[in-house]
Amino acid sequence: MQTLTHDTIENILHKVNKPSRYIGNEPGSANKNWDTAEIRVALAFPDLYEIGISNMGLRILYDKINNYSEKNFLADRVYAPEVDFKEQLIKHSIPLYGVESFKSLKEFDVIAFSLQYELSYPTLLAMLELAGIPYRKADRTAADPLIIAGGPGAYNPAPMADFVDAFIFGDGETVIIDILNNVKSRETLADIPGVYMPRYSRTSKIKKRIEDIDNRVYPVNFPVPFSSSVHDRAVIEIRRGCSRMCRFCQACFVNFPVRERSQENVIQLVGESLKNTGYEEYSLLSLSSNDYSGIEELVRTLNDRHASSGASVSLPSQRADNFSLELAELVQTVRKSTITLAPEAGSQRLRDVINKNLTEEQIIDAVKSVANAGWRNVKLYFMIGLPTETFHDLDAIYDLLKNIKQHAPRLTITCSISIFVPKPFTPFQWFGQEKSEVIYEKIRYLKAKTRNLRGVKVNVHDVFLCQLEAVFARGDRKLGSLIEAAYKKGSYLDAWREHFNKQTWLDTAQECDIDLEEYSTREFDLEEALPWDMLDVGIDEVFLKREYKNALNFVPKDDVVLKQIRNISGRNISTNDGVEKRSQPEEATENLKVFSEKGYKYRMKIFKTGYLKFISHLDWQKLIYTAIRKSGLKINYSQGFNPTHKISIGIALPLFIEGKNEYVDIELREEIAENIIKRKLNRELPENSQIKEIVKIPKNIECVEKLVRWAVYRAYPQEISTIEKNNLESIAKEFLLKENIVIEKQTKKGLKKIDIRPLVHSLSFDKESNILEFIISSF
Questions:
Q1: One domain for residues 716 and 699
Q2: Full strand arrangement of the beta sheet holding 710-715
Q3: Residue 71 lies in a domain
Q4: Where are the beta strands (DSSP E) in 158-228?
Q5: Rounded to a whole number, what is the distance in angstroms from the first to the last CA of the chain?
Q6: Which range among 197-211, 360-374, 529-543, 575-589 shows the weakest confidence by mean pLDDT?
Q7: How many Å apart are CA 242 and CA 256, to the nearest integer?
Q8: How confident is residue 637, by pLDDT bands cut at 50, 70 and 90?
Q9: pLDDT one-digit tens code per residue, 33-63
């Protein structure tokens, strides 16, 4: 592989879509010194940049490693490249690299993968091979990086045991530090609590690690992508774990015990995150938001502090049995978009089986209250293929939807149907998934049943994808051969429909003599060994078995159960009943209104050079906007249903074009001296996009994007010999002599002919500098 440099990468970025994925330098990046770092770790996400950059777990580890005070550790990031960039890397023999250091993954001491989804396993192999690292651990040597993995997939390490050196089990915040402290003596890593190394046998079970989340050690300054990501917001974890104990929910059982972050802590972290990132949205993350102590009070306080600055709050779906209309109103203060509820099953019998503890009356009451309060859209989550499910339970889904429409006829309902996938460390881990033919029959039945319900849309997850998920969720080490073979046949980024190939998996499974249906539908005996038995999540297996039997007898969980479950430190887990009340948060600070009649308009001359040529016009506008928010300047907004910030950019620069003198108008809610605005914004803007000049202009003057009609462009030489051969000077003169130059442009309506000659004001070529200069219309 060739030597990796910034120029090497830039030469291929011109040939790919969304090149900003691969350039690093995002605001909030640590960009630590490679040469002085004692240990270097690449945090790897086996999916696209837009997914990985939003992952909260990786944000936490990135912050923890880079800010570790006792040693100089370095954490960089790497994501699975899109197919077009992957092909360019292979074509030019360029290794996969960390986006901040631009160092090949092979040069890192540790590569830490996040296993969020089973179908990403072949992509992990591809990322290692792209870096020139053997993906089978048996083929690696001590000179290769240590490959570790954590996340939901680590709760059954068997399928990936042939490829991963060590699995992190439980909360990774301190485990990762312990690993980095001991990575130079790898044989000792197996002794670290919360670490499982398949090559070393242990007589005792490996207990998961648990962290106290109510502390100030939390990422409030992290890489903010130039482009949009799947969760384009700041995320504050307010609660880890869930005491509801739905029998199918792995996240509930593996994240015990329930831990809350105090209101004071949350309020401080939200404020710091918004200030440092410039985000205008923040999410309060938990498995069950309604169960957080004083959630309405918390959201009300946060709204008082931040809503007037344009910042909004979002929450995961609410529970219908504890639905709070006040909370829904507080979360969606600007406009009422969609309320999300998760009944999971249509019949009361089946809800008792899965321990949902939810009645139809509670569901109807929740939906009626939001409809009466003005909401017009509700999303409902259901699951089919659950243990003991019959077609009568499917009829109950239809009856529930029909009942909701009768009580709220104007409501639009999106019904999302997922397929039950049994997961380790749940009472349902012994059940198999239903056969595919039965699932397909149930889908057809339910769709036919609901077809005539007006205002109800039914979406169903892909059956085969869910089958594969079930195969790997409870599979054994034999599946390593299937993962490897599927990768060799081209399986890559299979979480994306455009990349997934069902036939590849069917052919590979047949060649590997693996029956996918047998794996997915297999029912385990309660006494037989399970592939994940070497791990201990802190919940007694006796309890899981009792819950399994209770499900078969349609017995919901009793509250006494909580007293019987012990967490890892041996303390009883408590419910929200009798939780100590938090102290009242301090009074909110006063803010100006989002919209002001008295707007103050400023025009800036600014440049956009270097790596920023790889971000789009909209991404640059977003960069300027977030810099304004981070600086504390109060941008003015438009009025109406969906207020937008008042920023106007003169010309939309195409990708790969640098701007030496671009013009931007901003409107603020208060009058500030130009030199102060310039100083504040340049402190928040990257060095490749600084304000050169700024002047205050009358508010009623036309915005710059309507004023700028022509722009000067200069094209600099790449290869002098090619320029001399083509005689650009005569070509330029010949161009200007033509009256019409008609080209064809592809539009949504098809090919369109356009005469571009009137759009070109001048065109000249300087033979001494070999620079081509042209003035063209901005319209």
A1: no
A2: 710-715, 771-777, 760-766
A3: yes
A4: 166-168, 195-196, 206-207
A5: 45
A6: 575-589
A7: 7
A8: confident
A9: 999 999 999 999 999 999 999 999 999 999 9
Residue with tokens 């309890």: 543
Q: ∠ at Cα 235 (207, 225), nearest 5°?
A: 110
Q: What residues contact residue 365 under an 8 Å CB cut-off, 6+ apart? A: 320, 323
SS (H, E, C) 263-296: HHHHHHHHHHHHHHHCCCEEEEECCCHHHCCCHH
CA distance 210 to 410: 47
Q: Which of 144, 141, 143, 105 is nearest to 124 (CA)?
A: 105
Q: pLDDT > 90: what percent of the chain? A: 72
pLDDT digits (tens, 9 = 90+) for 309-330: 878 888 876 777 777 778 887 8
Q: What is the per-residue DSSP string for 402-460?
A: HHHHHH-TT-EEEEEEEE----TTSTTTTSPPPPHHHHHHHHHHHHHHHTT-TTEEEEE
- Which CATH number goes with the domain that contains 699? 3.30.70.580
Write the CB contacts of 402 (distance below 8 Å, at least 6 apart in sequence). Answer: 453
* Phi/psi at 613 (5° precision): -70, -15
One domain for residues 678 and 715: no
**Element (H or E) spanning 766, and its range?**
strand 760-766
- Please give the helix or strand (H or E) that residue 463 lies within, else none: helix 463-473
For residues 763 and 769, the answer to whether their CB atoms sit within 8 Å is: no
Provide the CATH number for the domain around residue 281: 3.80.30.20
State the pairing for strand pair 760-766/771-777: antiparallel
- d(C-alpha 24, C-alpha 34), whole Å: 15
Between CA 6 and CA 14 the distance in angstroms is 13
Do 177 and 294 have their domain in common? no
Which pair of structure tokens corresponds to residue 600? 């103050």
Give me 377's structure tokens: 């859209």
Question: What values do phi and psi take at 522, rounded to 5?
Answer: -60, 135
Same domain, 124 and 146: yes
The pTM of this model reads 0.91
- In this structure, the answer to whether residues 695 and 720 fall within a common structural domain is no
466 located within any domain: yes
CA 756/CA 734 separation, integer angstroms = 15
Please state, in angstroms and rounded to a whole number, the distance separating the CA atoms of residues 11 and 3.
13
Alpha-carbon span 510 to 528, nearest angstrom:
27
Query: Structure tokens of 686?
Result: 């990257």
Spatial contact of 676 and 369, defined as CB atoms under 8 Å apart: no
Asked, for residue 462, whether it belongs to a domain, the answer is yes
Q: Are residues 363 and 301 in the same domain?
A: yes
Q: DSSP per residue over 540-579, as a string?
A: -HHHHHHHHHHHHTT-PPPTTHHHH-B-TTSPBPP-STTP
Domain contains 214:
no
Measured CA to CA, the distance from residue 53 to residue 226 in angstroms comes to: 11
343-356 confidence digits (pLDDT tens): 999 999 999 999 99
Per-residue pLDDT reduced to its tens digit, 243-261: 888 999 999 999 989 999 9
Report the domain count for the chain: 4
Place of tokens 């918004």: 274
Instruction: Using alpha carbons, select from 555, 645, 655, 658 the residue that is nearest to residue 596.
Output: 645
> Which residue, of 169, 189, 207, is where some domain finishes?
207
Take residue 703 and report the two structure tokens written for it. 């915005």
CATH number assigned to the domain comprising residue 118: 3.40.50.2300
Q: Does residue 134 share a domain with residue 11? A: yes
pLDDT band at 566 (very low <50, low <70, confident <90, very high): very low
Average pLDDT for 641-650 = 84
Looking at the structure, tell me whether residues 178 and 265 fall in a common domain.
no
Yes or no: say if 305 and 589 are a contact pair by the CB < 8 Å rule.
Answer: yes
Note the pLDDT of residue 336.
Answer: 56
Nearest to 206 by CA among 158, 168, 242, 176: 168
Q: Which residues span the domain enclosing 744?
A: 711-777
Q: What angle do CA 606, 672, 312 make, to 5 degrees?
A: 80
